[in-house]
Amino acid sequence: MSQPSAPPPPIAPAPPPSTVGAGGVQVRCAGCKLILTVAPGVTEFVCPTCQLPQMLPPELMKVQFKTSAAAAAAAATTPPPPPPPASYSPSLPPPPLILPAPPSSQQQHVPAHGIDPTKIQVPCAHCKAILNVPHGLARFTCPQCNVDLAVDLSKLKQFYQPRPTPPPPPPPEEINEVAIEVEREEDEGGLVGETFTDYRPPKLSIGPPHPDPIVETSSLSAVQPPEPTYDLTIRDDLESSKALSCLQIETLVYACQRHLQHLPTGTRAGFFVGDGAGVGKGRTIAGLIWENWHHGRRKSLWISVGSDLKFDARRDLDDVGANCIEVHALNKLPYSKLDSKSVGIKEGVVFLTYSSLIASSEKGRSRLLQLVQWCASGFDGLVIFDECHKAKNLVPEAGSQPTRTGEAVLDLQARLPEARVVYCSATGASEPRNMGYMVRLGLWGAGTSFINFRDFLNALEKGGVGALELVAMDMKARGMYVCRTLSYKGAEFEVVEAPLEDEMMEMYKKAAEFWAELRVELLSASAVLSNEKPNSQLWRLYWASHQRFFRHMCMSAKVPATVRLAKQALNEDKCVVIGLQSTGEARTEEAVTKYGIELDDFISGPRELLLKFVEENYPLPEKPEPLQGEESVKELQRKRHSATPGVSIKGRVRKVAKWKPASDGESDEESDTDSAHESTESDDEFQICDICNCEEDRKKLLQCSCCSQLFHPACLVPPVMEIVTGDWSCHSCKEKTEEYLQARHAYLTELLKRYEAAMERKTKILEIIRTLGLPNNPLDDIIDQLGGPEKVSEITGRRGMLVRAASGKGVTYQARNTKDITMEMVNMHEKQLFMDGKKLVAIISEAGSAGVSLQADRRATNQKRRVHLTLELPWSADRAIQQFGRTHRSNQASAPEYRLLFTNLGGERRFASIVAKRLESLGALTQGDRRAGPTLSFGAYNYDSAYGKRALVVMYKGIMEQDSLPVVPPGCSSEKPETIQDFIVKAKAALVSVGIVRDTVLANGKDSGKLSGRIVDSDMHDIGRFLNRILGLPPDIQNRLFELFISILDLLIQNARIEGNLDSGIVDIKANVIELQGTPKTVHEDQMSGASTVLFTFTLDRGVTWESASTMLDEKQKDGLSSANDGFYESRREWLGRRHFILAFESSASGMYKIVRPAVGESIREMTLSELKNKYRKLSSLEKARSGWEDEYEVSSKQCMHGPNCKLGDYCQTGRRIQEVNVLGGIILPVWGTIEKALSKQARQSHKRLRVVRIETTADNRRIVGLLVPNAAVESVLQDLAWVQDIDD
């Protein structure tokens, strides 16, 4: 097929281009709309571009048959050639065109051939072209490379039964729509499965059960860890003391076992503890230190996030019975040698934070080298990176620098190659790029299928979320990873939308308008200073403050709801934990330094932020220096004498015409100064009067102190009579000075006027800010409304707080700690008060709460149920998980209730969206299944994805009128196009006001009043910027823009789902009967751990018998849930002489209908009633329905929906009741590249994607999770794995 340059009308036949022999027609592809040329005689074909199988429309069939008959007649007149060559198909992927085979003399005129179903397809051994070989032909020549070939017929027997001669072709028909529909559904994969299964150590039975239910994602639970071979020295101690649960002991065994291995690079292998927050990682680490202590490894490094956690480390060591091991806090030690006499640390645990890992003393000694020196060479003790997500960003996204922490973590591992490294973190691998420092896992580098980390990262990003899930499974199978989570059973989730109250709404509107005006004001103020470069710093600060300000507003908007929910919880005898990110400390401290420690009311964070921004960044012209009085003429003369160049009106230096012509060779300045020297130091003979040019009365000559000219007193007009003493200036100079003074004065006055006007504007703006109604600092506000510091524990990083005076009037600033408690211990003290039940509300900020346990601990006095309110969701989901893990931990009397608050402002959902995105992938890599993040309710808010970016571009183009919008904007109707136009104008103006549309110009002429502008490329895809900026719009337009964005996003995702391109992670393959076929074949084995990659083949029966279909319908009718349209239907059209039958009944989503087909069971996609009635008609006769249903059920067991002549032959599974499915299970990473290569050669788009599936056999419930290998790709995967099946078996 070839493609002509000018597209003719779609259906009408057109003269064929030269590449086609005699005849042929042109049609437009039903899929990609390209013009295709179809060779004579062909009625069914596959588009080479989009791979869609299709047929010619009936009106072109006649043309086609005429041309093919003519071609056949021509062929008949040519004598047949001696050896029959195999016809060759060069460029077309199977399944291509079906063409009549031509004799060789015609070879040069006739197009290349596709697959001929009447022959056998064999690849040429030399050039790999697919050849069509007639049955029984054993020797022939390849028409492509002219090599002689032979076929071993005995080996081909079982692959190719000679096909019976096909029946005459059925009358031409259109494409089977039902088949396409079913095919799409199959490509989409099954339903996304449930996520968690209860966890018990599969291969170890030492130790008591864990005190709380623990779960593991079901994809991880499908993988078995290696056999435990390590024998614990402290096993007897542990069994008697019951200090560690069976789960924690399992971690000990696998970690010690892994530490006995070395990676191909020669370094010792490391272990990754990925247990969720609150499972008891601290105790597990203490157990590891204790076990190594018994082996004589007496030095360990424990690196964590906060120095407070040292107390927890001490507690954990005591719990496992290791009281004799000292814990030394590095931040309290000098920088000298740790094992020197003065410091005297010979053994024990050195506890340090990530920040001290990069610290150094004034003398330049670094902590890192101090530690390496203490460990000494050949060190094989433990190095624990606790909460190791703090070392992330070693491989940052493009454009930013790796963090020093990440580099230090890498450096420490490189300097201690024999150290036993343990990585611990509940969120360590939430994004694959954060794994860059985990070099001891051996996932990339020598001996793996990835050259370096970048290579590993690219493969994962290409594979999508399914790939992340495989990595986790892979690590577990190789014995280097455990990842269990506290079951969130009992924990309740609720996303609480706190709509803005009217007063707040008004406040918000005014603030949004103010920021827009401020932007215009700053633009015009900057324009006045046009001689300066555009101030990019100013705009950076402007947008940063803008975002902070509105984020603060959103937080304050939730205060009433927070207080309400907190009081309600306290009334129900529960206690409350409120989580937020920022405490507003900086604003408070600035205000206290500005206004003193006694204030009328709490500080308004947003107001202080605005004041500070305008105060420091309002562009002012320079303040001019005023003239000191009327500068004395003499002063000026002296000035002018010493610096002849005068001053221009603009205040810039300029050259003044010289009184004496300078000699050619000198520059102006030189001649200038030289002439001055000449005048005073020259010989007497050069002194002549400048007026009369005489030399008489030399002694009487007066010299002007300004222009240095000489005059006789009598020659001057008027003549000078009195004796002149001191400086004297001539008349012309005096005049000049006066002029100059006046001009200078006018100029300065003008400058001063400008400066004062700008100052006045600035003061006015500051005044407006002071009068704006803005909310108070949320933290102080909540503490105040919930009863003040006596009732509320504050666990944050701030040093002081504002407290309302006892009289209720005014507030005072006071330090958070009292005389008895140091600042360092104040958070520990507050936590204790909460756990003892002396205070029932705790407010935690991220800075103060790392690693703190606030659960309803069975050891604590306060065991009331915790209600955890998130006032502000953290910037990243890792942090959200950390925050949720404060109140949900092991050994708790009750699970917490979570209330995630956000306002009804479109843009504010952004913060939830970020968390949702991170949770999705958190669930993914850290837990092997991305739906595992506790917040299942968050999925709806994930905007920052590839689809989100595409939706944003579509929306921007629609608003800028470069393209039409694919959906009707909210609040508009398609009947009234003017409403849409009105929305676009408003939206464009809104985007201008938040700086997304730049370089705006108001058009005139026929488009007068229209705004034109552009959106720079970097903004086109920046979702973060869009969601941040629209926060600064008035609520109504903000929400309309946001809804428009969401509806476009939904549309794109819907389309991707229909086309089968949506990556939904792990999908479950469901069928009525699933059986494992034969024994699984091991196709690869990992040398180090002995784990293997296995190919499983399953047989699925997906059909629904007539009996079960009628039962389904009866039950619906019994329950009284059926609607009038429920029942059996047949398709309105016939394909290959048959109609398709279905059962349809109304689903829980009203107006939608569930479809059940005889061959493939219940379909995932539901149909609308109109679509159902359009494609199918309801059957009144049950007898007719029954015979049709049973017939389709029977036929579908042997053939696909495309009928007996399907071009894919036995490979095609579309609509087959009995299917064969191949899954590659076990460890996948080592063979990743091979599989990717094999899949990339597949013909169908949906087969090229790596798809992770979960399948469970119906008889013995054996669960396998792995990569789905399309049947057509199995051979090439096995060949590439250098595993070739013996052809006889």
UniProtKB/TrEMBL annotation:
<keyword id="KW-0805">Transcription regulation</keyword>
<dbReference type="InterPro" id="IPR019787">
    <property type="entry name" value="Znf_PHD-finger"/>
</dbReference>
<dbReference type="InterPro" id="IPR027417">
    <property type="entry name" value="P-loop_NTPase"/>
</dbReference>
<dbReference type="Pfam" id="PF13872">
    <property type="entry name" value="AAA_34"/>
</dbReference>
<comment type="similarity">
    <text>Belongs to the SBNO family.</text>
</comment>
<dbReference type="GO" id="GO:0042393">
    <property type="term" value="F:histone binding"/>
</dbReference>
<dbReference type="InterPro" id="IPR039187">
    <property type="entry name" value="SNO_AAA"/>
</dbReference>
<dbReference type="InterPro" id="IPR057332">
    <property type="entry name" value="SBNO_a/b_dom"/>
</dbReference>
<dbReference type="InterPro" id="IPR001965">
    <property type="entry name" value="Znf_PHD"/>
</dbReference>
<dbReference type="InterPro" id="IPR026937">
    <property type="entry name" value="SBNO_Helicase_C_dom"/>
</dbReference>
<dbReference type="InterPro" id="IPR013083">
    <property type="entry name" value="Znf_RING/FYVE/PHD"/>
</dbReference>
<keyword id="KW-0863">Zinc-finger</keyword>
<dbReference type="GO" id="GO:0008270">
    <property type="term" value="F:zinc ion binding"/>
</dbReference>
<feature type="region of interest" description="Disordered">
    <location>
        <begin position="1"/>
        <end position="20"/>
    </location>
</feature>
<dbReference type="InterPro" id="IPR019786">
    <property type="entry name" value="Zinc_finger_PHD-type_CS"/>
</dbReference>
<dbReference type="GO" id="GO:0006355">
    <property type="term" value="P:regulation of DNA-templated transcription"/>
</dbReference>
<dbReference type="Pfam" id="PF25373">
    <property type="entry name" value="SBNO"/>
</dbReference>
<feature type="region of interest" description="Disordered">
    <location>
        <begin position="621"/>
        <end position="680"/>
    </location>
</feature>
<dbReference type="InterPro" id="IPR026741">
    <property type="entry name" value="SNO"/>
</dbReference>
<keyword id="KW-0862">Zinc</keyword>
<feature type="region of interest" description="Disordered">
    <location>
        <begin position="74"/>
        <end position="112"/>
    </location>
</feature>
<feature type="domain" description="PHD-type">
    <location>
        <begin position="686"/>
        <end position="736"/>
    </location>
</feature>
<dbReference type="InterPro" id="IPR057025">
    <property type="entry name" value="Znr_FGT1_2"/>
</dbReference>
<protein>
    <recommendedName>
        <fullName>PHD-type domain-containing protein</fullName>
    </recommendedName>
</protein>
<dbReference type="InterPro" id="IPR057024">
    <property type="entry name" value="Znr_FGT1_1"/>
</dbReference>
<dbReference type="InterPro" id="IPR011011">
    <property type="entry name" value="Znf_FYVE_PHD"/>
</dbReference>
<feature type="compositionally biased region" description="Pro residues">
    <location>
        <begin position="1"/>
        <end position="18"/>
    </location>
</feature>
<keyword id="KW-0804">Transcription</keyword>
<feature type="compositionally biased region" description="Pro residues">
    <location>
        <begin position="78"/>
        <end position="103"/>
    </location>
</feature>
<dbReference type="Pfam" id="PF23548">
    <property type="entry name" value="Zn_ribbon_FGT1_2"/>
</dbReference>
<dbReference type="GO" id="GO:0031490">
    <property type="term" value="F:chromatin DNA binding"/>
</dbReference>
<dbReference type="Pfam" id="PF13871">
    <property type="entry name" value="Helicase_C_4"/>
</dbReference>
<dbReference type="Pfam" id="PF00628">
    <property type="entry name" value="PHD"/>
</dbReference>
<dbReference type="Pfam" id="PF23547">
    <property type="entry name" value="Zn_ribbon_FGT1_1"/>
</dbReference>
<dbReference type="GO" id="GO:0005634">
    <property type="term" value="C:nucleus"/>
</dbReference>
<keyword id="KW-0479">Metal-binding</keyword>
